[in-house]
Structures are given as C-alpha cells and as structure tokens.
Amino acid sequence: MVAKLSFLSFLGLAPLFAAAQLSGSVGPLTSAATKAATKTCNVLDYGAVADKSTDLGAPLASAFAECKSGGLVYVPEGDYAISTWARLSGGEAWALQIDGIIYRDSDTGGNMIYIEHSTDFELFSSTSAGAFQGLGYELHAEDNWEGPRLLRLYEVTDFSIHDFILVDSPSFHLSLDTCANGEVYNMAIRGGDHGGLDGIDVWSTNIWVHDVEVTNKDECVTVKSPAKNILVESIYCNWSGGCGMGSFGSDTNVSDIVYRDIYTWSSNNMMLIKSNGGSGFVENVLLENFIGHGNAYSLDIDSYWSSMSAVEGDGVQLSNITIKNWKGTEADGAERGPVKVLCADGAPCYDITIEDFAMWTEEGDTQWYSCESAYGTGFCLEDSSNTVSYAVTTTTVSSAPSGYSAASMADDLTAAFGSTVSIPIPTIPTSFYPGATPYSALMADSASSSTSAKAHPAVGTSSSVATASASVYVAAASAPAVTSAVAPVAPVAVSSAAESAPSAAGQAQKGQQGQQGQKGQQGFSSGAHTPEPPFGSEEEDCQE
Ligand SMILES: *[C@@H]1O[C@H](CO)[C@@H](O)[C@H](O)[C@H]1NC(C)=O
Ligand SMILES: *[C@@H]1O[C@H](CO)[C@@H](O)[C@H](O)[C@H]1NC(C)=O
Ligand SMILES: *[C@@H]1O[C@H](CO)[C@@H](O)[C@H](O)[C@H]1NC(C)=O
Questions:
Q1: Does the keyword Oxidoreductase apply (predicted)?
Q2: Closest ligand 1 atom number to CA of residue 226
Q3: pLDDT for the residue numbered 419
Q4: What is the DSSP letter of 344?
Q5: Whose CA is nearest to atom 10 of ligand 1?
Q6: Closest listed ligand to the CA of 410
Q7: Is the pLDDT of residue 529 over 50?
Q8: Is the sign of the CA dihedral 39, 41, 45, 46 positive or negative?
Q9: What pLDDT is attached to residue 531?
Q10: pLDDT tens-digit readout, 382-432
Q11: How far is ligand 2, taken at its centre, from the CA of residue 180, in Å?
C-alpha cells in the first residue's frame, strides 16, 4: 500500500488534491532508520527503569542530549513513570521512538513532554501501541483541571507524529504551536468527557493531520490563529466536542484550510467556527465530506459565541468558505438546527457556499436554518453583492431533505468515559471515516505482514522512508511512514447506507447532552445570538 501510494504520488496524480492546501512537503527529512544508524540512545542506558515508578524525566533528557544532533532516542516496551517534565529543546535530525507506555506521575502543570526548536523530527511507536497515559481522572475527580498537557510542539519544523496514543490528559492532549511542515497521522486520542481536554490544536503552517480518532468533550481537531495551509482529513470524532476553528479574537490570520472526510458522532458540533468580536480574517476554507450523527450542532458558524468574552473589534471577517457534501442527522433540529451561520454585523461574511448539504433531525420532525449578516449561496445565506449587516433570519422546515442518510461507523462509542474513572488505552483504529482506508498502514501491521526488513525506494518528495539498516527501528517495523506533500488518493466515496436508527444508548446520551446543554435550551428563538450549550468550557488561549 505504501509503495502504491508513493507510486501514485510519483505519477503526479495526487498533488492536484493537496496542492491548494499544503504549501510544500511535510514530514521529517531523514528516516528514523538512518537516524538510528547514526546513533541510538536507549533510555535504559541512561538510568530509566521500566518499573512504572522510576522517574523517566532525567534519563529521557540525558538520552536526548546524546542523540539530539542526529540520532534516535528509544524508549523500549514497558511501563514508565514520569514526574519531571521533559523539555527537549534544539534537536536536529532526531527521532523519538516510544514503544513503551509513559504514565504521568506528577500533578505539576505545564507540558509533560515539550519539544521545541527542533527540525527534522519524528515521534512514533514502531508497535503502534506506545502511549502517554495521563491519568487525568485522578485530578479531574477532585475538580482539578490545572494538570499538564501531554504533548506540545513549539517551533518544530519538518516533522511527523504517528502511530502513537494519547490518553486521559489532565489538560490538552496535543498542541502544535508555531510549527511548520508537519504530518500527524494514525493516532488515537482518548480523554475525559469534559471541556478543556482538547484533542489536537493546531496553529502553524503547512500541516497535514489525517487518520486520527479523538474521544473527549472538547476540540477534536481544531485550527487556531495564526494558521495557514492546514489539511485535516479522515478524522473520527468518536464522541467529542467536535472539530472547530477558533476561538478567534484580535488580528485573526487564518487561510487555506481544508477539512475533508470528517466523521462526527455524539459531539457538540460537526464544525464550529467561533469568535466574539475581534478582528482579522478567516479565508479560503473548504469543509467537504462530513458525516454526522447524534450531534448537537452541525454547521455552526458563530461570531457571537457566548462561551468567550467579547473581544474588542468589529468582528472577524469570514470569506470564501465552502461547505460541501454534508450528510447525516443531528440530535434535535428544532432545538439546534443543522445550518447556523451567524456572522458579525460589523464584518458581514461573504462568498459562503453551502451545497450538497442534507441533514435531518433524529428527534421530532422539524429543523431550522439560521443566518445573520452572511452572504453567499445556499439555505438562508443572502445572495447579494451588497454586504451590509442584517438581522438573524430563521427558516424552519418540516420535511426531510432527500439524500440525508449516511453511513455510521460500526464502533461508535455508546457511553462516555466520564472524568472520574480510569480511561483505558485504546488501540489505533484502522478506519477513521466510513469506507475510507488510512493513507498509511499502522507500523505494527506493516511489521507483522512483512517477513523481512526491506528497503523501499524513496519516491518523489517522500523522505521518511525506512531502510533496513538500524536494529532498533527495523526490528520492530520495516515499513516506512508515508510522508510527502501530496495527498495520495481521492477520498473513497461513501455510499449511503441505511440510516442509523438512534440506539437506546444514543437516546440516553442525547438526554445527557440536553442536560449539559440546559443553557442552550432557551433555543434559538430567544434572541439574536443563541447561547451556546456549555459542553466544553472555553479553552485556554493559544499562547502560554
Ligand atoms: C498572516 O500570516 C501570514 C503568514 O502565514 C503573513 O505572511 C501575513 O503577513 C499575515 N497577515 C497579517 C495581516 O497579519
Ligand atoms: C477560495 O478558497 C479555495 C480553497 O477552499 C481556493 O482554492 C480558492 O482559490 C479561493 N478563491 C479565491 C478567490 O481566493
Ligand atoms: C469508539 O470509541 C469506543 C470507546 O472508546 C471504542 O470502543 C470504539 O472501538 C471506538 N471506535 C473505533 C473505530 O475505534
């Protein structure tokens, strides 16, 4: 599969797809195998003990110091505890192979693993089973939300993170802060059922996030400002807050963003673009091939988002946003309709297109569409070249649009994990969108399916190709990570399957959402700007 994708890329078929979004190649410049061959620093040789109690902090820092300039830092299988957070700064041509499980063992805030000022970097597990277990529930049960984030990259360029699992972070799971040319894929992220436990937050340039599953109750995969050339695809929000963009405030600078093949189940929204006041712009956005079931909101553009305090300014200017091929059902379309495009009266949005959009309600038999100061085509958008503000308009419909039915994922989570009991470490799924196959096979599967380590030729711009030269790396996995600027193949068309009847569990969980969303219950009719259900508390700001 890997070879085939590379071949397609080589033929030049794929670049057409990603070209508009990514501005160049993504991923590490040197293979992990090459790095391992240059030098391997096994943490066990630096004082680490896989006994789930010895602090991994200092051994990890020592191993990094020895291997940061061309090498592979290796955390073998086993259970480790970390109580001194690792700040790994200034690496070049290095990789971090974590085949073990690292347990949080301190309540200190900050970032458990913080990687900064690095270039040509790769973090992965060759077994696809390496994980951080954040044990956030220990803090959350005591209503403590100040614990550390699990993983944060700051000013890292030409990198990838893949085949890795993040569980139960006390705070955010993965943040990409001012990074460039990165690829994040084949990951499972599973957090508590509470706000403030974001899955992936990206404010960076030229980043491809794909084939990721997130379970939590806040951001699934979210773009913050500033960001440019971000491609997010094949994302499974398996009981989450849902994907979003924002929250945006002053000097917002976000452009060339694509979300494609996004499956959202039992989340707050399928896509929420949120701001309240502020300035700057969000432009050139494509939100394509979304399937949703059991979500509160679906398309939710809210420039008066009540969960954030208003920021000074006329509003963030949204333009050239296309919403295309959305199918499925929302939880209760009379309470929260599937189309909500509320733009700032001080900065009406324009060139908004909603097409091939068919969603219907699971509860009751009406749903609404609502727009404010929004121009473009589709639903309640006003089609005019004159873009002056206008008040909220709401259209209620009582018949289902044709073609709304859409496939479900077989393994949709049927109950939340809550935030007070231990959350088990999941395995990384092998599909993240109905009918779609991930771009790269899991490393674990690649290893077991090949009898010997074989080198794959480097093709095109892909450089992160494993070769059979390093014992540590190759022993565990012979197949390469596919990494290149190109999105290899067209998304698999999703044939509409039988409409999924909301399960008993689905109903129960809708009830729960209803409760959590009491504030939102006043509904749309009560005022110009719908209060947001406080499912997820507003996240911390991007900046530290
Ligand atoms: C927006 O960010 C880009 C870099 O991505 C920068 O070149 C541009 O100057 C910024 N624009 C504004 C108005 O800040
Ligand atoms: C609108 O955004 C799309 C990406 O979604 C981009 O391809 C296109 O060039 C943009 N149009 C303009 C006029 O900038
Ligand atoms: C969705 O989440 C539930 C609970 O974690 C899990 O049992 C199920 O396997 C997940 N689905 C997939 C495809 O991983």
A1: no
A2: 2
A3: 78
A4: B
A5: 253
A6: 3
A7: no
A8: positive
A9: 34
A10: 998 888 999 999 999 999 999 998 888 876 767 777 778 888 899 999 899
A11: 21
pLDDT tens by residue, 15-27:
334 445 899 999 9
Average pLDDT of the segment spanning 193-198: 93
List all residues 6 or more positions away from 511 whose beta carbon is below 8 Å from its beta carbon: none
Strand, helix or coil at 399? coil
236 Cβ contact list (under 8 Å, min separation 6): 212, 213, 214, 263, 265, 409, 429, 431, 432, 433
State in Å: Cα 320 to ligand 2 middle: 6
Q: Exposed, middle or buried: residue 350 (CB in 10 Å: 0-12, 13-18, 19+)?
A: buried
Distance 253 CA to ligand 1 centre (A): 6
Closest residue CA from atom 2 of ligand 3: 413
What predicted TM-score, i.e. pTM, was given to this entire model?
A: 0.83
pLDDT higher at 422 or 109: 109
3-state secondary structure string, 105-126?
Answer: CCCCCCEEEEEEEEEEEEEECC
Active site (catalytic) residues: 218, 293
Residues 6+ apart with CB under 8 A from 4: none
Which residue(s) pair with 274 in the sheet?
302
For residue 251, the ligand 1 atom closest to its alpha carbon is 14
- Each residue's pLDDT tens digit, 324-378: 999 999 999 999 999 999 999 999 999 999 999 999 999 999 999 999 999 999 9
Residue whose CA is closest, atom 8 of ligand 1? 253
Q: Which atom of ligand 1 is nearest to the CA of 228?
A: 5
- Mean pLDDT across 519-543: 34
Question: Which pair of tokens denotes residue 518?
Answer: 């009491």
Give me the residue spans of the domains in the chain: 248-256+273-285+296-319+329-409
Percent of the chain at pLDDT above 90?
72
Q: Which ligand is nearest to the CA of 260?
A: 2
Ligand 3 center from residue 413 Cα (angstroms):
5
Q: Which residues contact 98 (CB under 8 A, 6 or more apart)?
A: 75, 123, 124, 125, 130, 164
The Cα 354–Cα 64 span in angstroms is 49
Contacts of 435 (CB under 8 A, 6+ apart): 407, 492, 493, 494, 495
- The residue nearest atom 6 of ligand 3, judged by CA position, is 413
SS3 for 481?
Answer: coil
DSSP letter at 306 equals T
Q: Mutate which of 228, 320, 351, 377 to test ligand 2's pocket (most atoms within 8 Å of Cβ)?
A: 320
Atom of ligand 2 nearest to the CA of 286: 5
Residue 448 has pLDDT above 50, yes or no: no
Quote the ligand 1 centre to 255 CA distance (angstroms). Answer: 9
pLDDT above 70 covers a percentage of the chain that reads 78
The residue whose CA is least distant from atom 13 of ligand 2 is: 320
Closest-approaching ligand to the CA atom of 228: 1
Rounded-to-integer distance, Cα 137 and Cα 64, Å: 30
